Amino acid sequence: MARQERAIRTRRAILEAASVLFNEVGYEATTIGALLERIDLTRGGLYFHFTTKEQLARAVLDEAVTLEGVRPQAFKLQEWVDIALLLAHRVPREPLLRASIRLSVDPLSRALFGTRWPDWVAVGESLLVEAQEKGELLPHVDPAETARLLVGAWTGVQLVTEVLPGRTLSEEISSLFALILPNVASSGVLARLDTSPYRAERLLKEARSQAD
């Protein structure tokens, strides 16, 4: 059991180190040699887990869709909002999540591996369909279209926020919802949704304290 846990930790450390490299220099310029300089591991130790850069990139993307911190809420729209707020809180703090975005927007890696944007769209659409069935959405709202547009808008906001100082990603995504939700949520639900940029931090603390 101890050996298995050590292997899991080592694999995670490799992925995080690779993610830092992907973020710093991009997919094409990242090399196995550069990765070995960053981690306390032999080439054989690395190859036990990953034998190619391509495997590393795919593994990073496999970790991209995460619902950590999301908890059942009275409104499905709140869960939809929470996913976006949690991701906005975590991406600046977690190199692996940030690398999954970097790989998705990089033309070379996107051509090789695709993206996880369709998966995020599917997650959002599923919640919005449930919200629609519960009467939380305005009559004109199309769950598939709305889910797709949020993924595109969220990604664009994240990329711009990386290079423009002054506002955190959490603040920007909170502002994005202030624009979107009046056109999505029914009036009775809209007033009861929490889009605070500080909500995600509270949700994560609660989830992690319960896990401990």
From TrEMBL:
It comes from the Bacteria. This is TetR/AcrR family transcriptional regulator. InterPro entries: ArpA-like, DNA-bd_HTH_TetR-type_CS, Homeodomain-like_sf, HTH_TetR, Tet_transcr_reg_TetR-rel_C_sf. PANTHER family: HTH-TYPE TRANSCRIPTIONAL REGULATOR YJDC, TRANSCRIPTIONAL REGULATORY PROTEIN. Keywords: DNA-binding, Transcription, Transcription regulation. Residues 31-50 bind DNA. GO terms for molecular function: DNA binding. Residues 8-68 form the HTH tetR-type domain. Signal peptide: none annotated.
